[in-house]
Amino acid sequence: MAEHMGTKFKGDAAEVRALGAFVKLARAANTALNYANSDLEALGLSPSQFAVLEALYHVGPLTLGDLARRILKSSGNLTLVVDNLQKRGLVERQKQGEDKRFILATITPAGQNLIAGMFPEHARRITEIMSRLTPAEQTQLAALCRKLGKGE
Length: 152
Hints:
The chain has 152 residues and is mainly alpha-helical. It has a domain at 45-150: Arc Repressor Mutant, subunit A. It is built from six helices and three strands. It has helices spanning 13-36, 47-59, 64-71, 75-87, 109-130, 135-150; strands spanning 62-63, 91-95, 103-107. Strands 1-3-2 form a three-stranded antiparallel β-sheet. A hairpin with a 7-residue loop joins β2 (91-95) and β3 (103-107). It is globular, with a radius of gyration of 19 Å.
């Protein structure tokens, strides 16, 4: 029987190792995201709203489908996020012809000002939490996450 690694799960060594690594990855990601996003609440932004604004700010106008894929959200969830940003005057929708699948989301000047004002602090917070790892460890982590994410 494999070592328990702080869990009551009694699988084989490969399962215990995989589950242990997975739990540690999830906890680390959650800790890093919570730290990086802790300044969003004061601005009245959800992490998804911030992700939309940040993508539109750095990439430019995107169709809702492209935006959903970029920020890893379902199109149904994204519609609500964009609706709320639009109500605040931070994002606009632009119809592209008659096809409703090609609606572009664009950031408004108010949205640009909000992101431009807050992004340096957001980037600083990410840099701060990631500095728990050495530069080489950050590079290694990025490569491992890319490999895991692509299923290689």
